[in-house]
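Fill in residues.
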């Protein structure tokens, strides 16, 4: 006679990550001018999973605030944003709060942002900072296709570890790819790959010089390259202890790189620089 079958070993005991139901958040938005001189209106909006867009009332460009009702990005989650701006439309996109990338026991989370701007359209991409927890694993892609005469300003801030806990990333994956095309031709390409003991990597002088946060600001707009000296002056005015930043310009666009000992001062530098550079206040969610 045979006794009852022994239970199968759990995935944890086998060393594999357990199967989970993962978040799949997606937003697709298309906007266009309401009428000549009459602002921008929503033409099409689709939302799925925990991703939502909210549109606070205000003056000037249409403002969209991205909400992640899941509260963050966990191992194996997938999020995607698809924005299309018809010719002449203006949009500012931001987020309600910092995006948290939680630790993973193996699976890689993926974030894909795809932007299409028609002739004369303007997009300001201003999400609040992304915070990577220890053992977070994420691959992020930012792709933009701009018609001639379109204008894009994009800013991203990334914190490596939770500053309040003094957290270090002893193991993790951060892969970030930017590809921007103008008039169908590649105008800007950038890839960052940090894997393994990320905090140790950032301590190296040639990589981060001990920084715990980094920021990228990119202006791909008509006339951006000619604003280099202005940008450098504004960076000097916006600087604070524990931050360092530099600007360069080529191929018709302007790029700013910044590092910070902590995310708070770096976020402040980015906000002060952009408010002066754009001659407009930051979105209200940035000021709370």
């Amino acid at each position: 006679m045979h006794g009852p079958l022994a239970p199968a070993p759990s995935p944890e005991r086998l060393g594999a990550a357990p199967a989970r139901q993962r978040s799949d958040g997606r937003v697709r938005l298309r906007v266009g001018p309401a009428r000549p001189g009459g602002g921008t209106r929503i033409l099409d909006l689709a939302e799925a999973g925990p991703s939502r867009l909210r549109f606070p009332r205000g003056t000037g460009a249409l403002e969209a605030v991205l909400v992640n009702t899941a509260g963050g990005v966990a191992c194996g989650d997938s999020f995607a944003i698809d924005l299309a701006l018809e010719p002449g439309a203006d949009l500012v996109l931001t987020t309600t709060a910092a995006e948290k990338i939680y630790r993973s026991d193996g699976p890689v989370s993926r974030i894909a942002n795809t932007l299409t701007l028609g002739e004369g359209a303007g997009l300001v991409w201003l999400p609040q900072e992304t915070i990577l927890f220890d053992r977070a694993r994420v691959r992020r892609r930012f792709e933009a296709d701009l018609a001639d005469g379109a204008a894009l300003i994009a800013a991203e801030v990334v914190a490596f570890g939770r500053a309040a806990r003094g957290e270090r990333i002893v193991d993790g994956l951060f892969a970030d790819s930017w590809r921007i095309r103008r008039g169908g031709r590649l105008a800007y390409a950038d890839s960052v790959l940090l894997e393994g003991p990320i905090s140790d990597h950032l301590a190296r002088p040639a990589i981060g010089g001990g920084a715990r946060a980094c920021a990228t600001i990119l202006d791909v707009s008509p006339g951006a390259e000619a604003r280099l000296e202005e940008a450098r002056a504004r960076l000097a005015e916006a600087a604070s202890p524990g931050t360092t930043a530099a600007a360069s310009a080529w191929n018709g666009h302007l790029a700013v790189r910044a590092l910070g000992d902590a995310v708070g001062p770096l976020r402040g530098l980015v906000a002060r620089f952009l408010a002066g550079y754009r001659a407009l206040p930051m979105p209200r969610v940035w000021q709370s």
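Residues 52 and 156 are 20 Å apart (CA to CA).
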